[in-house]
Amino acid sequence: MPLLTLKFKENILGRYPLGRGASITIGRRKDNDIVIDNLAVSGHHARIDAMGEGFVLVDLQSKNGTFVNEKLAASHRLKHGDVISIGKHQIHFALEEDPGENPGPHPAVDRTMVMDTPTYRSMVEKSAAAAPRNAARRALTAAHLSYVSGGKGEIGVSGSLFTLGRDPACDLVVRNWKVGRTAATLSRRADGWYLSYVGGWSRPRVNGRALQAPLRLADMDVISLGGVQLQFFIDGAAEAEETD
């Protein structure tokens, strides 16, 4: 079973198995699955969601950012051996359990502080060079969901990963007991946005058909989940075609 190992320097503070279909939150507040009592960690700092057979790390707009292998990451599909840096702590991701030292205690602290250490500045600088290109790509492939039924208004979809489910931490919350904590994800790939089923009794439908495998969405597709219907729109689709 995949395993997360929380470390501070060389000390192991905890081990957390990752079940298939699971969603784990990381942060300073006690309602997180992995609690890191450190001033540099936001109340709800990051989340790890099961997506198909893998797991995706998502930063929850934290104050100091989330890093994977020393690179700033808004979202990242985890691979064996990846090292997640949150504040001054590290979380090691392994596809199977690796025996080691017993967890030790970690200090209790109060509120989030902005980090300013040589290691932190170095990681930020390494990530800065790619930021303009990545930002432009995100802007070009942004999308939004418009309620058809079960709600009102529109919700923007940007970044690399957008989550739908019953958990209040999801980007779009569907309040239905049949819907999984993280029921589905919208992930941005090189060729478009893909909807993937994650878990729960209620399986998403696209244009009336139950989702069986990750599906590339087309402009104006209708997504149904737990009594909610949403229409998917790709922002700036015409401009993107002209640029190509």
Q: Give the spatial strand order of the biggest sheet.
A: 2-1-11-10-7-8
> How far from one another are the termini?
43 Å
Please state the CA-atom Rg, rounded to the nearest Å: 19 Å
* Beta-strand percent range: 35-45%
- Structural classification: mainly beta
The outline comes out as elongated
Amount of helix: 10-25%
SSE string: EEEEEEEEEEEHHEEEEEEEEEEEH
State the major sheet. Answer: 6 strands, antiparallel
Outline the low-pLDDT stretches: 99-112, 130-140, 238-244
What would the average pLDDT be, to the nearest integer?
80
Q: Counting H and I runs of at least 4 residues, what is the number of helices?
A: 3
Number of strands: 22
Features:
244 residues; mainly beta; six-stranded antiparallel β-sheet; 3 helices; 22 strands; 11% helix; 39% strand; disordered C terminus
Description:
The protein has 244 residues and is mainly beta. The protein contains 3 helices and 22 strands. Strand 10 and strand 11 form a beta hairpin. It is elongated and about 50 Å long. The N and C termini lie far apart (43 Å). The C terminus is likely disordered.
Task: Put the structure in a nutshell.
With 244 residues, the protein is mainly beta.
